[in-house]
Amino acid sequence: MPDGEAAAGMDAFATLSSPVRNALSERGFTTPTEPQRRAIPPLADGNNGLIIAPTGTGKTETAMLPVFSAIADAEDRFGISALYITPLRALNRDMRERLDWWGEQLDIDIDVRHGDTTQYQRQKQANDPPDVLVTTPETLQAMLTGKKLRKALSDVHHVVVDEVHELASAKRGAQLTIGLERLRELAGAFQRIGLSATVGSPDEVGKFLTGDRPFEVIEVDVDNRVEFEVVRPEVTNEDEALAGKLATDPEIASHVRTIRDIVRDHESVLVFVNTRQTAEALGSRFKSLGDPIEVHHGSLSKDVRIDVEDRFKAGELDALICTSSMELGIDVGRVDHVVQYNSPREVSRLLQRVGRAGHRLGVVSRGTVVTDHPDDTLEALAIARRAVSGEVEPARVHHGSLDTVANQIVGVVMDYGDVSARRAYEIITRAYPFRDLDEDDFRAVVRELSGNHLLWLDEDKDLLEKSGGTWQYFYANLSMIPDEETYDVHDISSRRQIGTLNEKFVLNFAAPGATFIQRGEMWRVNDVDDEEARVNVSPIEDPGGEVPSWVGSEIPVPAPVAGEVGELRDVAAPQFESGADREAVARDIAMRYPTDEATVRSALGPIEKQVEADAPIPTANRLVLEGSPRKVTLNSPYGHRVNETLGRLLSALIGQRTGSSVGMEVDPYRIEFDVPGKVRPTTFAEVLRETDPDHVEALLELALKRSDSLKFTLAQVAAKFGALKRYQGKGRFGGDRLLAALEDTPVYDEAIREVFHTDLAVAETVELLRRVRDGDVELAVAREPTAIGTGGRGSGTDLLVPENADASVIETVRDRIQNDRVLLACLHCKDWTRKTKVKRVRDPVACPECGATRVAALNPWDEETVKAVRAPEKDDEQERLTKRAYRSASLVQAHGKRAVVALAARGVGPHNAARIINKLREDEDDFYRDILEREREYARTQSFWD
Fold first, then answer.
1. What would the CATH number be for the domain defined by 225-375+558-607?
2. Do domains 3-219 and 225-375+558-607 have the same CATH topology?
3. CA proximity to 651, closest of 627, 626, 628, 684
4. Which strands make up the sheet holding 821-826, listed edge to edge?
5. pLDDT in tens, 500-511
6. What are the φ and ψ backbone dihedral angles of 178, each rounded to 5 degrees?
7. pTM, rounded to two decimals
């Protein structure tokens, strides 16, 4: 270290009190880390601060040393001097272990409080408060209402918020900001310190933390601290042999082999995956190989997670396969390499994950991204380059979430018993996400709460008072995380809980005898106890099990990342057009990205084929439409949210124009539409050019009213407003009725806001449509399906879908059909229709209105057939559709759900469904093989169909 920096380091420690300096000497800390050198002086002066630095650079001590110094110097300590708030309970345990040493040295009492803290310990903390309390955002909510704890909290002088970037993008973080303003009412002004991973909007996160009060940002650049390599494994002879051992295809075997080799070349490796399903599937592969590798994710029980963390830290395990559960700094000891399996989807996620490697000062964090198809590879290249350049996504703060306002109005009333509406409004709008909250919106929320009996509103006195429902609501809603029922999974042989399963998975799959994978091991369901929400299982060795299908959103790829994939295509295509071969183009790109030529070469195939076919290349400045029978694809490298927004908009407008429903499927680079036969890509081009960008938001809201996502979100928001009691249940008060009942309320307004914020990108889509209209973005139509258009994520080799392993293929076909939607229509009363997933259909298939069993199973978008059946006078086309519907209903009447399954297959109408069923297959796998045969025949002959 140069003399100037060494002096600055000594100056940083010199700002601390002598007890802390003595403890530093005893601990062996003679030289501060870079964050400590830069942050300790302003924090020791009492300034608010946001510390942004990679994992392993001493952020926790950076924040806490000035806090410890102030506490050690304080003459009078009667309550809680500092709160250390972490988003995960598991981090509480780590923080307690890390801070206890300092507490012992400085005679500072440190304790932890969260949802699992015993009543005895809570009482002890209330009667004799610790100097420093490590807690969670939700536990702070509960503490603010306790009589003794309020007195203890009135002495708070410092609040440290760990992983503040994670909270800034969540409603629980928005709730915390108001909680901190409620704390300020008790304690007066206090110092706020935030610890954050690298984030693209430090000022926004700082304002979020401080309520837009003065603060300093101390940011440590990631330059030269992280190294990445993106690889797409090539299949070798070894992989051919390994594929047989793993009962998978050689490409998947190459992924497993590549990860295994990386693990064997290092001492301790974290293998990050994007979903729990992939974690379980990959874990089961390594279990079969006998490698000392375990699985770690949020659906495993606390005991299991702690066990694998401790074994990894002790060196008993070579690697952990983990999800985001391991992103937030849980201490698992030294990690010397990180593998990311598939693109991490976001720059911030890659930095956070790879930052776990080299978990000590001066060590470069190294990571390998293993990809598996062209989109995945190009996306990973873009993310890795942007990570090294520090081009990180901004935090997406939930501004003005009205269900959070509702929750916190009740919290303020709990604080005081009764409070003026004006004071509650002023407290809430001091929090940064609510600084622009309109007073009329606030009062609408108050009236909704009053109408739901969660508080009393005295309009004359402008007073909010507790009601009989206040206490019960508040303690049932300490968290803004939506309630989702889970079942505990217990191993009856060891009597241990091994994890949890989603309620939908249990209801639809976990019947006695069913098998599945968890912790990378096979389990058989013995019984399900619905009252105790418990699934009892026993371990088995059976390669035919399913992977638990947890419900979770796909990590959305941001528009700038998808746009860079478009730019890469734009770089490669002209070189192919000028006659360059793939090796030369790959060599050119590999010079600018952290990868090898072979990996780039494998990703360039679809671009080269597109150029050879003289088809337009979709880029950030060119959208490309293409079609095949009953399908139109819009190639749009604009990321998940823009494509979701465009897709919903176009589905609604095309549907309105044709009078038929239009289905859609979205990924970051294309939108695939299922359309009526008469719709062509040119129809979409006309709509794109003609749509007024100024009307997009209103059109989307109209489109959302028919969507399941709005109804689902509305139910969750309604629960937070107390407008939907859990005991009513969805069956007694369905989504359509709920929508009708709440449409003119702040509950509906918040549901719309949340869907717009979470799923859509309205402003960006409006801008894209303006650029299309102005000619800045070209709109091209391909003559036929293109290599890029048909090469989406779904066409890549999936970890769970090997191409040439028959059992796995059949399982995939079964899963896909069971999860497809079907439109059931009664042809007796002709009044009842219902869209549902195939797996939810039960024998006998009957109309719930009239009891008849003459029920047709139709494509989910086939309202035309329903209209034809109901038409009093029919034209020739309606007559044809009606006959087809009655043939479908006859099959369902004779064969029940088996007919529904066959009719739900792709390209299998009543005629072919009857041929499949008439084979009278006793073995279910053979039944699905017959379906697959018909689907393949349809795919081969599809071009001849209108």
1. 3.40.50.300
2. yes
3. 684
4. 833-837, 821-826, 855-858
5. 776 556 654 566
6. -75, -35
7. 0.77
